[in-house]
Amino acid sequence: MRSFKPMVLLAALGFASALATEKLADGLYAEFTTPRGVFVTELHYRQVPLTVASFVGLAEGTLAPRDGKPFFTGLTWYRVVPGFVIQSGNPGLKDTGDTPVPYTFNDEFVPGLHNREIGTLSMANAGPDTNGCEFFVTLGDCTRLNYLHTVFGRTIQGLEVLPLIQPNDAFTIKILRLGAEAKAFKADPETFKALAAKVAPYAGAAEPGLAAHFDDPSQLLPHPMESQPDVPPRAKNFNFKLANFERATGVRVVGRLFAKSPAAAEDAVPGAYMHALARKLGVDKHGALAAYFADEKDWRVWLSDAAADTFLGHHATAADLAPEGPLHVIKTAFIDAAVAEGDAAFARQQQAAPADQQPPPAQHLKLQTDAILDGLILKLEPK
After folding, report:
1. Which of 158, 159, 154 is nearest to 115 (CA)?
2. In which residue ranges of the chain is pLDDT below 70?
3. If we measure between CA atoms, which residue out of 290, 8, 36 comes closest to residue 163?
4. Total Cβ atoms within 10 A of residue 312
5. Do 171 and 33 form a contact (C-beta atoms < 8 A)?
6. CA distances from 82 to 21, 114, 138, 165, 211 (A)
7. Domain architecture of the chain: domains with CATH
8. What is the pLDDT of residue 223?
9. Which distant-in-sequence residues (6+ apart) come within 8 Å of 361 by Cβ?
10. Predicted TM-score of the model (pTM)
11. H helices of 24-117, where?
12. What is the distance, to the nearest Å, from the Cα of residue 79 to the centroid of all Cα atoms in its chain?
């Protein structure tokens, strides 16, 4: 009987898979079979064809096969973070710690494809245009990963399986091609090369700075230090996010964190300092600026005329732009809501962390910055 149980389990999973396939509409899908059950993701092959071609090619064996087998052979979920993500894609990480990434390719960011819902399928990377074989599936709202990680699929069946996945669970991937268009989608080396040539490379700054999309000159955010080398470079990642957003949409959003507020003379006229800074950073006509002043814990947002129209929902009038007019009210409400969101996220992290491992104050600012910048991106993203 013991030897029969695995066969029964596999047969049951196979039967469930067949039933699931019957219910799917025409499209391109990835079916994940795990010890906890089966889940199916719809692949966004029309919106992000390069990324999907890579994933499909590695799964079917048409790209970078290993020993005559598909690259995605012998996969395990080697990174499982409850409430955040499950990650895999690199068979070498199972036992050896090797990183046999077969190639790298550029990011494909598309407005509307977000890491917001549980079951989103996205690429893992080490910065702009470093996509390879690794991918993750979200276990919750991961909006902060938007414009950092390419979204290329969404789970449409088996969502209940995802939270059950355990570290080192083995799994398989089967590509399902339903309908003529999906069956015609190619994932061979020639197609991949042609698609890769069409995707523009990252052109933003490599580091935060005066001319970059984001800067934190006083290092108010968490950052790597000699005593804490594993802390992610938060300012660097915010810069990548904003540069990628402009790369994908043409909309420029910039962020600045300052230790001290402007001098009284610079700030005497309401809005004058922010307008001057927006002009200096190239967003006075198009785009937006978010700035934080740590000494007063003060967030401010400058909106260009086009961005103001978006926030208002109509073309701004002189009355809308008055010092205490509708735009001011809307911006204040936006900032208050974003700050409250960051505060709530920090409180949750404090509650979840052991008493002797509490998150530092800099993490509080990081979470507020997430909420402010992501809020601007979602507001200004082309619909």
Report:
1. 154
2. 1-22, 94-100, 225-227
3. 36
4. 17
5. yes
6. 28, 20, 10, 9, 38
7. 4-198 (2.40.100.10), 214-380 (3.10.310.50)
8. 86
9. none
10. 0.91
11. 49-60
12. 17
